[in-house]
Write a structure and sequence with these properties.
Layout lengths: L2 H10 L24 H26 L10 H11 L4 H4 L1 E6 L3 E6 L2 E6 H16 L4 E9 L4 H9 L1 H6 L3 E4 L9 E9 L2 E2 L2 H13 L8 H14 L9 H11 L15 E6 H6 L1
Antiparallel strand pairs: 1-2, 2-3, 3-8, 4-6, 5-6, 6-7
Helix pairs in contact: 5-9, 5-10
GO biological process, one term: mismatch repair
Pfam families: MutL_C
GO cellular component, one term: MutLalpha complex
Length: 278
């Protein structure tokens, strides 16, 4: 009935023509690729060898440079602290005993010399430091200390540390400041005697390190003397198991690098890789 309008509607709904990609002919070129598992394995092995060589060079030329001389003691100790961890002592191989006084050990390519007496002395010393509770001797009558208020507070707050050092006190919280603490027991050990001077030293140490287990210098001297007497002496022949035990002990203490008297326990002798290259 309305042909013109009907024709117009058809135009409105007519979809535009879509552009379709035309096929393109590509010129391809085949290039042969040389591949060999044998060559690949060889390259991987060479890379691994280069990494090992670099690590070996670092080990040889950088880890231990200090000489075995008194003037180089600090440098040698610093190197050992940096390069030797506690678990490495268990890994060391026993080569033997030298001159009935030194243990020769090997860790990878490094050779070390260990003083058997000094290392055993340091282990025994640290065990005494950590675990010994000194026995005190009661005084006939409690002794007033008349400590300054600050020192008195330090003593009261760390009284358990004083007890482990053999000092016992009677504390009267109701008394006036500087009169709250009385000494009732002093440590004694054979020829060693202690007194107020050792208490003052311990208070001074605890003022810098509150709550830390400290020992007065004279107690340390006593422990060092005890440790020396009970340690393996120079001139004593040791079995492999006895030498191994000393090595294991070095890995169990905090500061294994010198004995209580300052003598070095361990020094680096040589590196086998450097010797073989020379």
């Amino acid at each position: 009935m309305f042909p013109t309008e009907h024709k117009s509607e058809n135009k409105c709904f007519e979809r535009p023509s879509l552009m379709v990609d035309a096929p393109v002919l590509l010129q391809r070129r085949t290039v042969p690729l040389q591949f060999s598992f044998h060559e690949l394995a060889g390259k991987v092995k060479r890379l691994e060898d280069q990494k090992k060589q670099k690590a070996s060079d670092d080990l040889c030329y950088r880890r231990f440079r200090a000489k075995i001389l008194p003037g180089e003691n600090q440098s040698a100790e610093d190197e050992l602290k940096k390069e030797i961890s506690k678990d490495m002592f268990k890994q060391m191989e026993i080569i033997g005993q030298f001159n009935l006084g030194f243990i020769i050990t090997k860790l990878n390519s490094d050779i070390f010399m260990i003083d058997q007496h000094a290392t055993d002395e340091k282990y025994n010393f640290e065990m005494l430091q950590q675990h010994t509770v000194l026995q005190g001797q009661k005084l006939i009558a409690p002794q007033k200390l008349h400590l300054p208020a600050v020192s008195e507070n330090i003593l009261i707050e760390n009284i358990e540390i004083f007890r482990k050092n053999g000092f016992e006190f009677l504390v009267d919280e109701e008394a006036h400041v500087m009169e709250r603490v009385k000494l009732v027991s002093l440590p004694t050990s054979k020829n060693w005697t202690f007194g107020p001077a050792d208490i003052e030293e311990l208070i001074f140490m605890l003022s810098d390190s509150p709550g830390v287990m400290c020992r007065p210098s004279r107690v340390r001297q006593m422990f060092a003397s005890r440790a020396c007497r009970k340690s393996v002496m120079i001139g004593t022949a040791l079995s492999v198991s006895e030498m191994k035990k000393l090595l294991v002990h070095m890995g169990e203490i905090e500061h294994p690098w010198n004995c209580p008297h300052g003598r070095p326990t361990m020094r680096h002798l040589a590196n086998l890789d450097i010797i073989s290259k020379d």
